[in-house]
Amino acid sequence: MAVLHSAPKFAANTGVADVLTAALGAMLLSAHEAHGEIILTVKRESVDDALRALRDDHEYQQLMEIAGVDYPERAERFEVVYMLLSVTRNHRLLVKVSTDEATPVPTITGLWPNAGWLEREVFDLYGVLFAGNTDLRRILTDYGFEGHPFRKDFPLTGYQEVRYSEEEKRVVYEPVKLAQDFRSFDFMSPWEGADYVLPGDEKSQMPATPPGGETPKTTDKPSDTGAGAKADAAAVTKVASGAPATKDNGTAAPGAPDQTKGPAGNPADKSGDKA
Hints:
The chain is of the alpha/beta class. The protein has a domain at 7-190: NADH:ubiquinone oxidoreductase Nqo5 subunit (Beta Polymerase, domain 2, 2-Layer Sandwich), CATH 3.30.460.80. Helix content is 16%, strand content 20%. The chain is built from four helices and nine strands; from the N terminus they run αββαββββαβββα. The strands form three sheets. It has a five-stranded mixed β-sheet. It has a two-stranded parallel ribbon with strand order 6-7. Strands 8-9 form a two-stranded antiparallel sheet. A hairpin with a 7-residue loop joins strand 3 and strand 4 (78-86).
């Protein structure tokens, strides 16, 4: 098979981190390899110079993506990640900077024009500011949207909901109203059970013996009526014979099925023919 270009099919990371560490010098904070990729962390104020050097001197020609990451426990909670591609070397590179909610990151729209759209996305979803971006507007959320939905402290339900009002004949914004009665979830394993009494389970916590000390009467089998030995003996006979339930005087008890009528309430046809 003929080779159409000189770029290798698979570019190795061997020696790349050492070369780029020496090239970036004081602009670089750390360099390491993880998940098969070289990751460089540079100073926030030097990101434009660092990326320019990687583009012009080390053949990382294309900016493929800019992503954001939120670590709320950190003082600089946000990371901005630049994903670069070297077309001639067939190699990818990740460059990261850190910032907080108030400190802007220098824009790189002077290096790659497509960075304008990508920086707007990170601003919209995380609230990261980019100094020098002349068109830093929301790009995915609505015009009047409040907050930044990819932050870890942003509620999954949001703050407002949008619907079309038939009465007002326009789209209206309203505070989120959930239909669920219980909106607190503990994420406990259902197989292990909760460590508290769930609504409706209070009866399971009742003592087996009543406060007076008397043992409650129970019927352990169908022939036990709880009315005494004589009634139990009569019940056993009725169950064995299949006779319908009757009163003490021998008449059928109220609600007992009438043996002279069929399922539909019509007289039963003993010959097997329907009426």
